[in-house]
Structures are given as structure tokens and as C-alpha cells.
Amino acid sequence: MAQVTLLGAWPSPFVYRVIWALKLKGVDYEYVEEDILYNKSERLLKYNPVHKMVPVLVHAGKPIAESAVILEYIEETWPQNPLLPKDPHGRALARFWTKFGEDKNPALFGFLRTEGEQQVKATKEGQEQLRILEEQGLGDKKFFGGDEIGMADLEFGWLAWWLEVWSEITGVTLIEAESFPRLHAWIQRFKEFPTIKETLPDRSAMLTHYKGYKGLRTPYLALAKS
Asked: Would you state the pLDDT for residue 1?
């Protein structure tokens, strides 16, 4: 096994948080694709016996699970190209908005799990959280941490690619340029950043994959632990 191995599933936005962090840090790693829906490997069950989900980072034979925890581990283990600011207050703010993203995932993903009137309600609730994120988290900054991509940007990176695919499938648009101008502009900057752009999954493949789960109350993304 390589010194650094990432167990993942290609459609999962949570896995890509880790991929982006490793790429930004310049860390070489081996990627192992897992079939988490139908055929979980013995390696996955061994390294993540609690949740049995991806992503799992294995470093020198030691596993770390949960994407937010993995990002912290990567930051501490490979300090080059930092994902957190140097000053304590800036680091605290980055961690606050990362946790905000983790806590608000049910609301932000709500439109995927509902239909009809419930979907309308879920969409409104999701947009309320996005409004808070835009006004209080992003503000007028280029990225959440300032001029460079940081941990909070990786937390919300799914907005820049997955959301568009899910919107096309469901017919629900959470973020429009007129309603969320700063967040919309951030999305364009984030997905065009070279390290991010070169690793994004194929959009047509994502559409094909997720259309297979349209109408399910528990879509694929809910099966992959954050």
C-alpha cells in the first residue's frame, strides 16, 4: 500500500474535498474506488468499521474518516500551502464556517429528498442558509478565507459543480446570479481554479449517475459520510 491512500467513490462531493486538499498541498497519494452501495470492500470495512463509508484517508497504515476531520489531519500533517490562516482568529472563523457547512447539510440537501410542497419548503430553507453563508461567511472576499482557497472553500466546493447537476435533475435552482451575486461569483472562481478544474468529475457521467437515483428519498450523496 502507498504511504497515503484515499478510499473514495467518484460521485461523492465529500471525497473531492479530500482530493482537492491533497492536490493543493502537493501530496502524492493512491486513490482506491469503492462501491459503497453494493459491494463494500474488506479494506473499507476494516478502515472505517463505524460508518463503513467514504472518504477514508490511510496514512502510514493508519485510517482517518470523515472529510472535515481528514482536512484537519491533512493541514496538520502537511503544513505547506496552508488551508487555514496563520492568525488564531482567522483559523477560528474558517473552522466556524466549515462546521456551519457540516451542520447545515440536511437543510442544503433538503430539496433532493423531497417533492411537491415539501420540496418548495425545503428549497426556501436551503436558500435561507445560503443567504447567511453569502452575507456573513463570504461577504466581499474572493474566497472564504480571503485571496486563497482554504478549508471553508473546500467544505462548500460541492456548490460549484454538484449543485448544478442536481438542479438540472430536480428542476430546482437554489443559487441564481440575481439572488446570490457574491456566492454565484465565488462558484465561478472556485471551479475555474486550475487545481479544482482539473479534478472535477465528468458532468455527463454525473448526470447519468444521479438520474438513476431521481425520486429516491435517500439519494447517493446521503449514503456517503461527510
From this structure: 56
